[in-house]
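Record 1 of the preview.
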Amino acid sequence: MSEFRGTPHNTALPGDIARTVIMPGDPLRAKFIAENFLEDAKEFNHVRGMLGYTGTYKGKRISVMGHGMGIPSMAIYSYELFKFYDVENIIRVGSCGGYLEEMDLFDIILVEAAYSASSFARVAYGYTEDLMYPDKAITKKLEETAKEKGHFIYKGIVNSGDAFYYDPAFKETPPYPVIAGEMESFALFTNARYLGKKAACLLTISDKKDAVTTPEERQTAFKGMIEIALDSAIGL
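->
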C-alpha cells in the first residue's frame, strides 16, 4: 500500500491534524483564530487557499480549518477530515442570517437541527430525511459553556440553503420553524452521521434584513462564538 500523501484538497500528513477541529467558513477567519487563540500554531494546509492550522488552546491540541461556502464545499472538507485524518469532532463556527424580529447582529445561535431541500444526503448516502442533527453531547457542552461565559444564545432549526442569491418569487418556505439561514450545517451533520463521527454548530448573525456586517467584521468580530467553541473543545 502506498504511503498516504494527503488528499486533492489537503496536503496535511497523518498526525498533522488534531482529533477536534474548529471550522469557520472563511479561511481568513481560520487564520485569525490560529494567530489570536492558539499557541504554537502551525499551518498544515493552503491548497486552494483553504487554510488549516494546528496548535494548542489552554493545553489542548486543537486544529482550525476553513470549509468554504455551501454544502458541496463543506461536504468535501469535513468528509476528508473525518475519513482520512482521524478527526473525531468538528465544531462549525459560521455566519448566518437571522430570521427572528428580536435578533440582532452578532447574536449567537446554537444549531439544534439543520433543514435543507438539497439533494446532497440522498445522492451521497441514500438518506431521505430533510433534517440532520448535531451530536447531542457536544451541543449540550456548547450550551453549558455559553451559559458559563455569560452569553445568551438562541437555539433552534436552521435552513441550510443552496442559494445565496435568488428570485424572491421562488423563495422556499421551509416546512419547519427555522430561526436562521446558512449554507453548510446540513452537509456537516450528514457526513458525521454517515461516518460515525461527531459534529455541532455555532453561528453568529452577520446579516438581518437591511443590516449587514463587513467582511472584516466577519473575520474578526465573532470572538464570543469562537471562545465558546474553543472552551468546549477542551473537554472533547
